[in-house]
Q: What sequence folds into this?
């Protein structure tokens, strides 16, 4: 993934936002597993169901969480832009409004755009360093 285009990065970040909006875990899919391994969920004593591979969204979420410790505003800007912030737009139905998001975060639009560029660069670097999508601890 070290050669992500802007469109691919946008698609990956939008997928991450939908993953976050969906609850980020197996419970959000409606499963109540008795046993979990890396690739399957046991729904009952006899049946197994494959689970969605969430390694890329998990890597992004880990990166954003670490970024929030270093620079909370940049993390919040990224979450607001892609709909992964609890106060942002619904990524299923609405498009982001940068002016509204900047006002909500109480920063100027130019600062919002600068922080968004930093957010995108940070995520791109994390995905480039960890091409399998497994976040470094």
A:
């Amino acid at each position: 993934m070290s050669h992500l285009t802007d469109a691919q990065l946008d698609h990956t970040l939008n997928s991450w936002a939908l993953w976050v909006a969906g609850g980020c875990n197996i419970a959000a899919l409606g499963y109540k597993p008795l046993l979990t391994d890396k690739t399957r969920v046991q729904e009952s004593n006899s049946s197994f169901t494959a689970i969605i591979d969430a390694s890329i969204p998990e890597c992004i979420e880990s990166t954003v969480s670490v970024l929030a410790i270093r620079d909370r505003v940049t993390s919040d800007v990224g979450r607001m832009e892609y709909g992964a912030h609890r106060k942002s737009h619904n990524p299923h139905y609405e498009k982001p409004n940068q002016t509204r998001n900047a006002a909500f975060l109480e920063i100027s639009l130019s600062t919002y755009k600068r922080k968004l560029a930093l957010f995108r660069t940070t995520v791109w670097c994390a995905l480039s360093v960890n091409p399998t999508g497994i976040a470094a601890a």
DSSP finds five helices and three strands in the chain.
